[in-house]
Write a structure and sequence with these properties.
Strand order of the largest sheet: 1-2-3-5-4
CATH architecture of the domain at 245-369: 2-Layer Sandwich
Distance between the termini: 61 Å
CATH superfamily of the domain at 245-369: Histidine kinase-like ATPase, C-terminal domain
CATH topology of the domain at 245-369: Heat Shock Protein 90
Order of helices and strands: HHHHHHHHHEHEEHEE
Strand content: 5-15%
Largest sheet: 5 strands, mixed
Length: 369
Amino acid sequence: MNTAFLALLAGSLIRYLLKHPESPRLPWVVALSVVLAVLQLAGRRLGAQRPGRRGLLHLGAVVAVWVVLVLLAPSFAWVAVPLIYTGLRSLPTRAAVALVAVLCALVMIAEWRLAEGVEPNLFLVPPTVAVLATAVFIYMRRQSDRLQALVDDLIRTRRELAATERREGALAERQRLSMEIHDTLAQNLSSQQMLLQAAERTWDSDPAAARGHVRTAESIAERSLAEARRFVHDLAPAELAEGGGLAEALRALAARESAGFRVDGTAVPLPLRVQSALLRIAQGALANVREHAAASAAGLTLTYLDDQVVLDVADDGRGFEPGRERPGVRGHGLPAMRARVRQLGGTLTVESTPGEGTVLSAAIPLEHA
């Protein structure tokens, strides 16, 4: 805009110098042209091109000097074109339209003074240019305002979505932690309670067995302490953190629970979250066997297939009817196991019949893992 303004101003001054080299108004015209150029260039440095009080004062000064210059030399009339855009940018719409009308009227008067006779174009071209420029600018400003509003809405929506995702993530993490605590600390404490109760019952009649129960409870308490420390540092199962892998962790778990264990197929590397989920499922399933199944035998089977890894937990206990809650069953149980498997894109199936035992099977696709 400054370039267009200065170009029109210089062209008008050159025309005046060529047409009126002996005019007594020449010094005033040259001086006002210099003042007008300085005012226009100073607007950017003073920050007067942005809407505000300073911009209004600057625009008023430029228009005032231009009006005096046009009255002295009508050839400076077309400098009004960049002034129109400056006014449209700096003023509210109604005030800007009023300023454009005034500038257009002055341009027509100046052109009429320069013309040798009355021509229709004198009264058609300036209003047409002014109306077209005003309409285009107002339309573009409205489009810009709509675009800015859309950008603001998108930013606000993105912030709300991020906040929602954070809340959902916090809820999911809270649920996962509750399952972790249920599958580790709560079950270990339950095992310790049962062992200590057994030690109390046999303390007088069989001290050796009682001491064995106490030692087992002590080892469980040690693992519980390791699990509690793990919650502070990270969430990888302590058994897996020892470096033996999933198979060794399941083998140790089966030994503690007096259950059988075997591995079928060729072992493949599994992500830590898959190993953790299968280990927790095994712990939860064996805890249910110990507390509710009254089974004489239980077994774990880890099977590596071409497209999935499968963990089976079987017992010969009292069984139950799948899908029906049984009185006395506490904690997350099967819903927690299903949630773990579902997060990994797998499936959990339970086959059981009252009096004929239970088989729990967790299958996780290797591709998803």
